[in-house]
Prior knowledge:
The protein is mainly alpha-helical. It has 10 helices and no strands.
Amino acid sequence: MTETNESLALRATAFAAEVHTHQRRKGAAAEPYVNHVIEVGAALAAAGAPLAAILAGLLHDTIEDGDSAGRPVTEAELAERFGEEVAAIVAEVTDDKALPKAERKRLQIEKAPGKSAAARMVKLADKAANLRAITVSPPPSWDLARKRDYIDWAEAVAAGCRGVNPTLEAAFDTALALARTALEDQTLD
Ligand code: ZN
């Protein structure tokens, strides 16, 4: 029997929940990390993204964070569980943690335009979710300058992801505008 799309999506969600079990978001509310990847997957689905992009959205941090979360995940394991296409998209949006953070952030901007359409969709949805998180529940240790740097960086990465899905772009632009407004309000406080 061929697996249905619903079954695949829920299996990816369950797998992400397992990998991120002990991980929390950096925001003040310390939400379970899996909330973030579900938000990304749901945004992709709502925007009519292809199934492979939705699955990759649910799984987008499993390779990058699996090590630190105590449940290492490889591209080969994802390929076995969810197919080569999904695994390749996740690999495309995975940073090389061997590089210093500043270099990884620079490479995200530089490489975004050369990524596949599905990878750019995942990145747009991911950056929009992160901007919403910074607006609603910012990490307590982040000062205004750090938030502003993050917002500017997310905008630069997203600029290289445009042209693949107007709904995701519009959602990103809304999240960006709200993040900037929230920052201005804090500057005035
Ligand atoms: Zn993410």
